[in-house]
Amino acid sequence: MKKQRTTQQRKVIEEICFSSTCPLSIDDIESRGKEILATLNRVTVYRNLNRMVDAGELTRFSHPEKGTLYEQANRPHHHHFFCKTCEATFELPGCGLSLKKQTPAGFIVEGHEVFLNGVCAACAS
Amino acid sequence: MKKQRTTQQRKVIEEICFSSTCPLSIDDIESRGKEILATLNRVTVYRNLNRMVDAGELTRFSHPEKGTLYEQANRPHHHHFFCKTCEATFELPGCGLSLKKQTPAGFIVEGHEVFLNGVCAACAS
DNA sequence: GTCGTTGCAAAGCCTTTGCAGGGAA
DNA sequence: TTCCCTGCAAAGGCTTTGCAACGAC
User: Which residues of chain B does A110 touch, with a Cβ-Cβ cutoff of 8 Å?
Assistant: First the structure.
């Protein structure tokens, strides 16, 4: 692991990622970052996010509808809900999955992801 | 809906998709198709798959590790298991998800996807 | 002959890489 | 001063589009 330097860009990107309560896309992070630091470059966002994923600070996953998303790595086990009306992604605490019921004999399950979709409380009312 | 013509390419692509017991990637379909019809072009595969998705014959979904996959649309409800050893994708019948437990008040769940990963029976033994 | 389809080339996204200049330590 | 980091440009992968030729009907 190389020694890291604290740059303005890195501070902005880390602040955005660590303060968000839901997964963010590259576009989210880039546009929010540019509000704070107008010269922020998309490539720099990519590089910093990749570094943070490698360092175990962020988790990257691919959402079926929203593409690549990033979230903090230290969150408790949870899944995601995508609202097709406002297109926001929410974090759902806990897990409604019964692994034993799902798994055929001989298969070893090491991990899983669940994506729910529908309409969120705000959009439904 | 336009009138469709029955071409060699389309027959090959449909045969591959409709006879597979697990989801296929573009690469899978292209390489299997080229074994039957060597001149088959990747663009033609894309176009036919898109047409079949639009026609409701296939479902396209994005797997977190394998990227875009295609499967028959008329299959009963199921989820997918990805083996990290042989990198195959298996279809798991049924559903181990308890939606009520998972859903916060006010959210309306319309659909869901579950991806399991681990080691399949063949690779585990 | 008509017109849906194909194959090739090219273009569009998303993401990564090369490189020179800039800035943190 | 050192050398990590950034920004720009360019390159790679995946997918779509434009266009002329082909082929099903």
Answer: 84, 117-119
